[in-house]
Write a structure and sequence with these properties.
The complex is a heterodimer of chains A (about 110) and B (about 170). Chain A is mainly alpha-helical and about 110 residues long. Chain A has two domains: about 70 residues, Arc Repressor Mutant, subunit A, CATH 1.10.10; about 35 residues. Chain A is about 70% helix and about 10% strand. Chain A is elongated, with a radius of gyration of 19 Å. The model of chain A has no long low-confidence stretch (mean pLDDT about 85). Chain B has a single domain, classed as START domain (Alpha-D-Glucose-1,6-Bisphosphate, Chain A, domain 4), CATH 3.30.530. Chain B has five helices and seven strands. Chain B has a seven-stranded antiparallel beta sheet. Chain B is globular, with a radius of gyration of 15 Å. The chains are: A mainly alpha (about 110), B alpha+beta (about 170). At the A-B interface, strand 1, helix 5 and helix 6 of A face strand 1 and helix 4 of B.
């Protein structure tokens, strides 16, 4: 699964599609096609790869098929390699927040 | 893939977010992890959920005596495949103002021993506070970790309410 994620991300057009969905989630193929200098067929092909990697998920609404950025696989990549570095930093921030709030109360 | 769910726009609240994850677990095990109070705490910010899980019943999520997170109705309960809930966020005055939204959980077996879990959070206001749906990637990643390894995922914030009694925040 993780191979598919990195393969899907290794293409600038597919990253651009994710950028477009990040900007506005839940778009139809027609809407996406207008945002990229590429044929409908080309966009559909790239979307298929993104769907296969789990980076795009679709829902039907009425007669429309909407495409959504699914950030979960990227979250999993994050959890695998980044979490250990972020942990002490985040707990320090939590401590800082607590101290600041306590100070505010004391004022 | 089964027939996809049709989503309707209610009262002009048409904004939808959608998430999916593949988890190596049976549908029954996944259903249990979603509806069991103790399991839920282990991947959902330390927050449990209580309900009798019958159709039309209420549920309540939070840390009793410390923080209320959400409440709502179990609109459709079809174990182990489909759960539709109304979702009213309660953890701050800002999110309370967002009113009632909807969360749909769909479990679809894939391959021999895995499932695709789809979570759709919709009936959101166009300018909905992103706190409402921003926790899903972490929750789903934690759910996968729990079911596949038996371990808790301890990324920052993932269990923020687990020791809620100790840090009196939010």
């Amino acid at each position: 699964m993780i191979d598919d994620v990195f393969k899907a991300l290794a293409d600038p057009t597919r990253r651009r599609l994710l950028d477009e969905l990040f900007e506005e989630d839940g778009q139809t193929l027609s809407a996406l096609e207008q945002r990229l200098p590429m044929s409908r067929f080309g966009v559909a092909k790239h979307l298929k790869v993104l769907e296969g990697a789990g980076l795009v998920t679709t829902r039907k609404r009425g007669r429309e098929k909407l495409h959504f950025l699914n950030p979960v696989p990227i979250r999993e990549v994050h959890d695998r390699w980044v979490s250990k570095y972020a942990e002490p930093w985040a707990s320090a921030l939590t401590g800082l927040k607590r101290d600041l709030e306590k100070e505010n109360q004391d004022d | 893939m089964t027939e996809e769910q049709l989503y309707t726009v209610v009262g002009g609240r048409g904004t939808m977010t959608a998430f999916e994850i593949y988890i190596k677990a049976s549908p029954e095990r996944l259903w249990e992890a979603i509806t069991d109070n103790e399991m839920r705490k282990r991947y959902s910010f330390g927050v449990g959920v209580e309900s009798d899980w019958t159709q039309g019943s209420e549920y309540r999520a939070g840390v009793p005596g410390v923080v209320d997170i959400s409440s709502g109705e179990n609109v459709e309960v079809d174990p182990p495949r489909r759960l539709v809930q109304t979702f009213t966020a309660l953890w701050s005055e800002d999110v309370k103002r967002e009113g009632t939204t909807r969360v749909t959980w769909e479990i679809e077996p894939v391959g021999e021993d895995s499932c695709q879990l789809r979570v759709t959070h919709d009936q959101l206001d166009e300018s909905a506070n992103n706190q409402l749906y921003g926790g899903w990637p972490m929750i789903l990643s934690g759910l996968k970790t729990l079911l596949e390894t038996g371990e808790d995922l301890t990324t920052p914030g993932s269990l923020m309410y687990a020791n809620a009694g100790n840090w009196g925040g939010e």
